[in-house]
């Protein structure tokens, strides 16, 4: 009785011919996509800067998560079509999804009083475990509902509402890209905020918490519209039936591989003993398209690195765009912006021009071009990386040390350090670090030579101070890595007789005594107020910093607490700021997005035009599976290659895609386009074989008790599946 009620169409209220119920579905999709892409935008930085994983491991876990997100749609489709139906599947898995997002937000919260010096919590294993649980729940939720929501939206329309249904899918696609665009703008801003009670840290709990809240909103909105939905009962999953048919054909062919059995035109014909010819013909068409899918994962292997390797690349670049300061994870917004711009340009201008030039630009040729553009995008990324590496500091190896000298005397000083001889003017430093392999001899002016020992693998600053009548050297350890997240590591050297306290952006450096160096503090990019006090007088001035630099600020003996006190403070550059602008990433994003538009949109349209009417979902599952396999390829290549330079890895991926592109072009050359409707009509008009005759043939082949009733009805998928495949390009 319940099944009959579910099958019965519910007459939903309409506005301008559209069911009101689609409003709830569109809002649900917008919130869900905001939740997913917002969380994913900051995920790799969360791995690197909160969980303290290196670039390679952060990339590995990121792509493992994305792969799971595109493997679980198969499970969601089977559950929806075979047991629960689309509505219940969306509700139940959305609950799992929301719980996963909440767990991720909670995993980023820690008591800063129990943190280490670098801000990481002591109980890191707990946070890692919680994060992994959250990501697995999110992967199950977002992947499970992916094949259901669009098709459920199509269920809301009557058969005569084809125009309204088409408009709905356009709006649905717009909601996907709007959610993606807004989330990749907003969540990086939230992450960049400073939060914490005792010490300010990057606000990952807020960056994950807002997407979690949006997912809860998505679930509530969807449930509120429950009474207005048209709900259909589960009618069996065509993917399961296709897999069984293929499995039977392989098994039957293997069992009867001896020469006494006549050969058959196609290996799927070995399923004729159990399945009717129409189903076999449909499976042949599907297998033909799935065969073309084999090279496609390589495209996604490159495409999804926008959220991992390219984001990490942006952390070493300058994000100052004048009126705007762009965070590294915000560069991902270039992709959805370009998609919204390029899709109509391609459809309205580029393709019509190509057609007027009498060029046979077939769908498979378009996809080949899309793969080639993606390879070019990684070549562009490699060129940018080469430029970045020329600006990065050369840190010491494990067997060497480095030192920079600062003359704090009011007169020029002759210095001999190992084999290096130079003169330093008053209150100046050596332009760059000097390399030392072993303890070295240091001679200051007319002083006797002293032996200086530096720890291997360290950078050091050696100020030369006046000690009575003779100069004397001091040693201070410097940072040996670029400051993270575009911050700037700064410290102060006090050459005054009084004890100084320095405050920069609320960060206090207290008790800096004479001829001593403060600890480093990490200060964000932009303008910061600096307050220097000796307990009686105060010096206030502004300091403007770029991205990823390190400075030592010298407070000289001539320093006075006057109005322009900051003018007398000198600076020594330990690490230069990022000088390659993030705008140089735009060409690689443009090439990649162009490739996506030509490859992804065309690929879906081609696949659905070549698939039988009742097997669109099989092709959708296969398409999503190529995305999952592509992310697995990233894991394999990144782990196996172990290339020392990032630019070389980019070139490796580009080369692999070019190779795969050539293979795909050859496969496409030999592909013959089909018209599924005509083939289905041909078999539909054929007289069915007599059941007893089919049973006799089956027994002759040795397949006893294997017959399925001929009365089994072939179920067609919803007419919405065509629209779903053509419109849902942002998955």
From TrEMBL:
Task: Tell me where in or outside the cell this protein is found.
Answer: Apical cell membrane; Cell membrane; Membrane
TM annotation in the entry: 12-28, 63-84, 90-112, 124-145, 171-191, 203-224, 285-303, 337-355, 367-388, 618-638, 650-671
Q: Does the keyword Ribosomal protein apply?
A: no
Organism (species): Parambassis ranga
Q: How does it sit in the membrane?
A: Multi-pass membrane protein
Q: Which GO terms describe its molecular function?
A: symporter activity
Q: Which InterPro entries match?
A: MFS_trans_sf, POT_fam, PTR2_symporter_CS
Gene Ontology biological-process entries: oligopeptide transport; protein transport
Please name the Pfam families in this protein's record: PTR2
Main location group: membrane
Gene3D superfamilies linked: MFS general substrate transporter like domains
Function recorded in the entry: Electrogenic proton-coupled amino-acid transporter that transports oligopeptides of 2 to 4 amino acids with a preference for dipeptides. Transports neutral and monovalently charged peptides with a proton to peptide stoichiometry of 1:1 or 2:1. Primarily responsible for the absorption of dietary di- and tripeptides from the small intestinal lumen. Mediates transepithelial transport of muramyl and N-formylated bacterial dipeptides contributing to recognition of pathogenic bacteria by the mucosal immune system.
Residue span of region Disordered? 686-731
Name assigned to this protein: Solute carrier family 15 member 1
> In the UniProt record, does the keyword Transmembrane occur?
yes
Family affiliation: Belongs to the major facilitator superfamily. Proton-dependent oligopeptide transporter (POT/PTR) (TC 2.A.17) family.
Keyword tags: Cell membrane, Glycoprotein, Membrane, Peptide transport, Protein transport, Symport, Transmembrane, Transmembrane helix, Transport
Q: What SUPFAM superfamilies does the entry give?
A: MFS general substrate transporter
Reactions the enzyme catalyzes: L-leucyl-L-proline(out) + H(+)(out) = L-leucyl-L-proline(in) + H(+)(in); glycyl-L-glutamine(out) + H(+)(out) = glycyl-L-glutamine(in) + H(+)(in); L-aspartyl-glycine(out) + 2 H(+)(out) = L-aspartyl-glycine(in) + 2 H(+)(in); an L-amino acid tripeptide(out) + H(+)(out) = an L-amino acid tripeptide(in) + H(+)(in)
What GO CC terms are in its UniProt record? Answer: apical plasma membrane
């Amino acid at each position: 009785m319940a099944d009959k009620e579910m099958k019965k169409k519910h007459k939903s209220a309409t506005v301008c011919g559209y069911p009101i119920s689609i409003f709830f579905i569109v809002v649900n999709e917008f919130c869900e996509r905001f939740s997913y892409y917002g969380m994913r935008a900051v995920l790799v930085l969360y791995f690197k800067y909160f969980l303290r994983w290196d670039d390679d491991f952060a990339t590995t876990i990121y792509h493992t998560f994305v792969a799971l997100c595109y493997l679980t749609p198969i499970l969601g489709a089977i559950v929806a079509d075979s047991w629960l139906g689309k509505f219940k599947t969306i509700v139940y898995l959305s609950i799992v999804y929301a719980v996963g997002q909440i767990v991720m937000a909670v995993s980023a919260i820690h008591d800063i009083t129990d943190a280490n010096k670098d801000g990481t919590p002591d109980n890191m294993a707990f946070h890692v475990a919680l994060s992994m649980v959250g990501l697995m729940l999110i992967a199950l939720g977002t992947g499970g509902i992916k094949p259901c929501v669009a098709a459920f939206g199509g269920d809301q329309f009557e058969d005569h509402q084809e125009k309204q249904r088409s408009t709905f899918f356009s709006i649905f696609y717009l909601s996907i890209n709007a959610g993606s665009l807004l989330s990749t703008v907003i969540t990086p801003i939230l992450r960049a905020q400073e939060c914490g009670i005792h010490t300010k840290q990057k606000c990952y709990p807020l960056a994950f918490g807002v997407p979690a809240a949006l997912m809860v909103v998505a679930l509530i909105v969807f449930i509120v519209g429950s009474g207005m939905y048209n709900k259909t009962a589960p009618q069996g999953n065509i993917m399961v039936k296709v897999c069984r048919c293929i499995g039977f054909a392989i098994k039957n062919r293997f069992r009867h591989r001896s020469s006494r059995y006549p050969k058959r035109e196609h290996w799927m014909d070995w399923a004729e003993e159990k399945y009717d010819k129409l189903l076999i013909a449909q499976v042949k068409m599907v297998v033909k398209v799935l065969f073309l899918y084999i090279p496609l994962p390589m495209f996604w292997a490159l495409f999804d690195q926008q959220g991992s390797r390219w984001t990490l690349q942006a952390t070493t670049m300058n994000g100052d765009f004048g009126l705007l300061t762009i965070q590294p994870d915000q560069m991902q917004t270039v992709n959805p912006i370009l998609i919204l711009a390029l899709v109509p340009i391609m459809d309205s201008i580029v393709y019509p021009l190509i057609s007027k030039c009498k060029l046979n630009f077939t769908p498979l040729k378009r996809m080949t071009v899309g793969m080639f553009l993606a390879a070019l995008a990684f070549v562009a990324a490699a060129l940018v990386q080469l430029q970045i590496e020329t600006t990065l500091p050369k840190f010491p190896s494990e067997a060497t040390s480095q030192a920079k000298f600062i003359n704090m005397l009011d007169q020029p000083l002759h210095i001999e350090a190992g084999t290096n001889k130079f003169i330093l003017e008053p209150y100046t430093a050596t332009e760059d670090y000097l390399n030392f392999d072993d303890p070295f001899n240091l001679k200051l002016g007319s002083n006797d030579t002293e032996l200086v020992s530096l720890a291997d693998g360290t950078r050091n600053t050696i100020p030369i101070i006046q000690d009575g009548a003779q100069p004397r050297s001091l040693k201070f350890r410097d940072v040996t890595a670029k400051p993270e997240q575009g911050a700037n590591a700064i410290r102060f050297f006090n050459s005054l007789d009084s004890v100084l306290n320095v405050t920069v952006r609320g960060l206090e450096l207290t008790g800096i005594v004479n001829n001593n160096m403060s600890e480093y503090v990490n200060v964000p990019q932009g303008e910061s107020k600096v307050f220097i006090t000796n307990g009686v007088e105060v010096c206030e001035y502004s300091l403007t910093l770029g991205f990823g630099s390190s400075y030592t600020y010298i407070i000289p003996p001539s320093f006075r607490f006057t109005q322009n006190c900051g003018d007398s403070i000198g600076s020594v550059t330990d690490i230069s700021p990022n000088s390659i602008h993030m705008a140089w990433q735009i060409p690689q994003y443009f090439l990649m997005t162009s490739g996506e538009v030509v490859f992804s949109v065309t690929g879906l349209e081609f696949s659905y035009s070549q698939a039988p009417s009742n097997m669109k979902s099989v092709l959708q599952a296969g398409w999503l599976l190529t995305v999952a396999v592509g992310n697995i390829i990233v894991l394999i290549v990144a782990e196996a290659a172990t290339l020392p330079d990032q630019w070389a890895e980019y070139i490796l991926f580009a080369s692999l895609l070019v190779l795969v592109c050539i293979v795909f072009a050859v496969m496409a050359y030999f592909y013959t386009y089909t018209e599924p409707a005509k083939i289905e009509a041909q078999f539909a008009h054929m007289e069915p074989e007599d059941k007893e005759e089919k049973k006799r043939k089956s027994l002759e082949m040795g397949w006893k008790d294997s017959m399925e009733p001929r009365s089994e009805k072939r179920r067609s998928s919803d007419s919405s599946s065509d629209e779903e495949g053509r419109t849902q390009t942002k998955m």
